[in-house]
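About this split. The held-out portion is used to measure sequence recovery: a designer receives only the structure tokens and must propose an amino acid at every position. Recovery is the fraction of positions where the proposal matches the reference. Here is one held-out target exactly as it appears in the evaluation file.
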């Protein structure tokens, strides 16, 4: 169930970067990751709801495809067991495909909107930054890139980015 909360982190970070219009994309991404962690409760609640809806969607979609394919299978002779099994597998595949095509983009948008709403008005907590710094080499790398970009912009006389 937690999969929906983790699947769309990169899309949420990108959305936050666009929303803030921060010239230092590394700094915006760093801040977004911290805010994503700070907003874990709301994002996890959304993910649980999406997971349950996803399971229900797949079950309904498979049933919808099983009705016509089951009618075809019923009309086939009993000796065609392999073909009947293949029709069942096709119904499963079509139901899952429909989930990927219709439900997953909605789940992505829902996760992004939940993150943006939960993080609205928040500032990055240094405590969360320290926690992420301890456990993730990639986060430290991102933080270093943000600092380099800020130092480069400041050295050129530009204003530091404002969030």
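Reference sequence for scoring:
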């Amino acid at each position: 169930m937690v999969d929906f909360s983790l699947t769309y982190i990169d899309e949420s970070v990108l959305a936050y970067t666009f929303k803030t219009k921060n010239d230092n994309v590394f700094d915006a991404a760093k801040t977004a990751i911290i805010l994503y962690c700070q907003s874990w409760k709301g994002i996890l609640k959304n993910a649980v709801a999406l997971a349950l809806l996803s399971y229900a969607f797949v079950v309904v979609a498979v049933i919808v495809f099983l009705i016509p394919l089951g009618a075809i299978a019923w009309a086939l002779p009993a000796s065609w067991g392999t073909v009947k099994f293949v029709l069942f597998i096709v119904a499963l595949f079509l139901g899952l495909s429909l989930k990927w095509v219709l439900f997953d983009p909605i789940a992505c948008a829902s996760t992004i909107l939940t993150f943006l709403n939960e993080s609205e008005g928040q500032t990055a907590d240094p405590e969360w930054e320290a926690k992420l710094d301890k456990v993730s080499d990639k986060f430290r790398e991102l933080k270093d890139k943000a600092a380099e970009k800020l130092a480069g912009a400041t050295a050129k006389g530009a204003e530091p980015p404002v969030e």
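Annotator remark: The chain has seven helices and no strands.
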